[in-house]
Amino acid sequence: MRKSRKITFLILTLFFLLVSIQSFAQSSLLIKGKVIDAETKELLPFASIGIEGTSIGTASNSEGYFEFKVSSNWKERNIVCSFVGYKTFKIRISEADTYSKAGQLVFEMQPAESLKAVTISSKRIPKVEKIMKQVIKNLSTNYPQKPYNADFFYREYLKDSTAYVRLVEAALNVYDKRSYVPIIYNYKNKATGMIEIKNIEEEYFVQVRERRASYDYSKSRKNNFYIDVEYGTKYNWLRKQQFIFDKEMYEKFDYELINLTSLGGKTVYEIAFSYNGTIDRFRKLKGKVFVNEEDYAVLQLHFSYLPVGTMGGYNSEERYGYNIYLENEEHFYFKKYGEEENAKYLVSYQSLRSTEKYYESSEAFEESVSEYFVEQLTVDVNLENPTPQELQDASKLKEVKYNPLFWESYNVLADSPLNLKIKEDLEKRQSLEKQFEIGK
């Protein structure tokens, strides 16, 4: 009898969940458009887009287009779009919906006033080393120092030579217990004298709520169900306080203040950095960081490096060879979340592009070049009342089945020519929808 009640309860829970998802899909508005420079008409990629007064948001994709699903109850709220170097754009949701339905929604971003009058050599501009020192000093006030929850849209895809061969998308829920609390590192290996990064306890707990995946047509076919659940923290130098954000390590880099721009009327420093040596598994690190003059928070972080070593080894039974890393590049965009007085900066969008040479076997040395891509978009953040959770058992990942109703109401990165190319390549054998249903 008790078992029967439990089964009935589970069936009812699932029913109401499906009804609520379907209800939201029917009552939500799909806001579709593009973000452009008002003067040049150039499309602006990865612009931050959100609902004013909330932590709900999205971003324009790599082509400058966006899709945003919002509740119809929020028609009188505003959508806010921001991008470094431009004035903030604001529009009422009801008005945006009207333009969107007509296929005419365009966020025309006005370039901010020129800062050329304030030259980089001016005495008003601090030296770049002092700027970076202040960035490190303000880490504890600009970024969360206590646990929080976040919802992410995760996308991973793989390209072998000229064709895309794998796609995985997921809705992730994270409980970041450690958050951005400062870490003390011991970089130098006393035995070898090499600079190494000691592993730390991440306390970054991820649950995969929903997932959809194509079949894996890659040559290695090792990762059909693979989702890098640690991606959100793995390369986030700010959260780890590594490299240019570490009190000792930052002095080893070369810096140059290359531009002054603005965001929301506030001055932003654009700083280039580089390190030609080897740090742990990274060689020839170089990139740019955008720093807000008002609070010395990082707004954007872009870097590339040459990884050290190879991945994998030849396996005659599964018939895969090994990879040699060529170059990785990472991109991070940050914005404030939470109530104004307690707002903190977090990643709003991040991406990885990794290029590798793949060898078919240890004997034949048949070479091909693969490109591996990961994107992660922050959909919502809860800083005030986070709910603790454990890390999902990797073996349970295959049990997360494709739910088309969920994806109808979930915010993802908008389609673009790149997405259409991925779909075209993957559908040469079977429709993508069918592949999602099969669960490969």
Descriptive report:
The protein has nine helices and 18 strands. The protein has helices at residues 2-27, 93-101, 128-137, 139-142, 231-234, 237-240, 404-409, 417-426, 432-438, and strands spanning 28-37, 48-51, 57-59, 65-71, 78-82, 89-92, 106-109, 148-160, 163-176, 204-213, 254-263, 266-279, 282-292, 298-307, 310-311, 322-337, 344-359, 367-382. Mean pLDDT is 81; it is low at 1-25 and 310-320. The strands form three sheets. Strands 8, 9, 10, 11, 12, 13, 14, 15, 16, 17 and 18 form an eleven-stranded antiparallel β-sheet that branches. A four-stranded antiparallel β-sheet has the order 3-2-5-6. The protein has a three-stranded mixed β-sheet with strand order 4-1-7. A hairpin with a 7-residue loop joins β17 (344-359) and β18. The chain is α+β, with helices and mostly antiparallel strands and 440 residues long. It is 18% helix and 38% strand.
